[in-house]
Amino acid sequence: MTTVSIRTDGTDLTPIDRCINNWHSVLFGDRAALASLIADDAVFRSPIVYTPQRGKDLVLMYLTGASMTFGGDGTPDVAAAAGAGDAPAPAPTTTDADGKPWDGRFRYVRKVTGTHDAVLEFETTMQGTYVNGVDMIRCDDSGTIVDFTVMIRPLQAVNAVHQAMGATLERMKAQGGG
């Protein structure tokens, strides 16, 4: 994982800036780096599971599953999680919440940060359903994730995420990764 420590304007990055940069590296391809980004006592709060998931192993399992599931319709991992095999379907052409053209793949659309906390709003499509949500991330001084909460809307999206994440986690368990 490549860690950037200077902003383009020359100022030092905050712990959450480093954390978000590293999280984006994981989310967009470098899944192997996830373990070094999660604190041993980290907590994950799911939009589906009521009980907070505590400890590095559980947080790794859920965030790995999410990184495999939340790419948006048309990505290989999402197609496989939906039972469509390994070949990706063409990315759909759809519109976002503001009616602008968009391919439906995962993207962050808003970021609110402090020194150790961030709220990242995202949108994607899953099984043809528009998903809008937020990742709320807290890190320590070293930029390591200590708390990760996901919230999702609307109800149809919660149901689609539940189904797709369930399939991904089952697939991970069958392959010995969960």
Order of helices and strands: HHEEHHEEEEEEH
Task: Count the domains.
Answer: 1
Structure class: alpha+beta
- What is the terminal-to-terminal distance? 23 Å
Order of strands across the main sheet: 2-1-8-7-6-5
- CATH class categorisation: Alpha Beta
Low-confidence stretches: 1-6, 74-90
Report mean pLDDT, rounded to a whole number.
82
Q: In which range does the helix fraction lie? A: 25-40%
CATH topology: Nuclear Transport Factor 2, Chain: A
- Overall morphology: globular
Main beta sheet strand tally, sense and closure: 6 strands, mixed
Radius of gyration: 16 Å
CATH architecture level-2 label: Roll
The number of distinct helices, counting runs of at least 4 residues, comes to 5
DSSP strand (E) fraction? 25-35%
Number of DSSP-assigned strands: 8
How would you explain this protein's 3D organization?
The structure is a single chain. By secondary structure, this protein is α+β, with helices and mostly antiparallel strands. The protein has a single domain, classed as Nuclear Transport Factor 2, Chain: A, CATH 3.10.450.50. The chain contains five helices and eight strands, in the order ααββααββββββα. It has a six-stranded mixed sheet with strand order 2-1-8-7-6-5. A two-stranded antiparallel sheet has the order 3-4. Helix 3 (about 55-70) packs across helix 5. The longest helix is centred in the last third of the chain and has 20 residues, at about 155-175. It starts with 14 loop residues before the first helix and ends with a helix. About 30% of the residues are buried. Residues about 1-5 and about 75-90 have low confidence and may be disordered.
